[in-house]
Structures are given as structure tokens and as C-alpha cells.
Amino acid sequence: MLHPLEDDTIMCPYCGEYFSVVIDCSVADQQYIEDCEVCCRPIEFHVVVNGNDDYALTVQTENE
Ligand SMILES: [Zn+2]
Q1: Domain extents for the chain?
Q2: Which of 27, 31, 20 minimizes the C-alpha distance to 4?
Q3: pTM for this model (two decimals)
Q4: How far is the CA of 32 from the centre of ligand 1 (A)?
Q5: What is the rounded (10 degree) CA torsion for 17, 21, 26, 32?
């Protein structure tokens, strides 16, 4: 069962550093920009929630 807010760790597509993010699982399909905590470049997040217990998070550079 997913919590409404899930902690996850992503790898920045620009600098390759890992940092933790909070995913809002109450929205089934969402796309947003959040700056990397390390290099401050804008990372595009795409979250797709699959039912009640799984979600897919992908990150990419803003221009990809
Ligand atoms: Zn970075």
C-alpha cells in the first residue's frame, strides 16, 4: 500500500549525484520540474501511479 507521500532516491541526470525526493502519490499521472539539490539544474520528473501499491518514477533533463 502506498503512502500519499513516498520517499524515494533519484539520480540527477545532469551531475549523477543521488538525493532524496518526496513523491506525491495522490496524483495518478504527473510531470513537474524540480531543481537538483546538488547542481541546481532543472530535472523533469514523471510519476505514474499503478493502482494502490506501485508507482513508476522517471527523471530526465529538461530538454530531452
Ligand atoms: Zn545535479
Answers
A1: 5-61
A2: 27
A3: 0.88
A4: 16
A5: -60
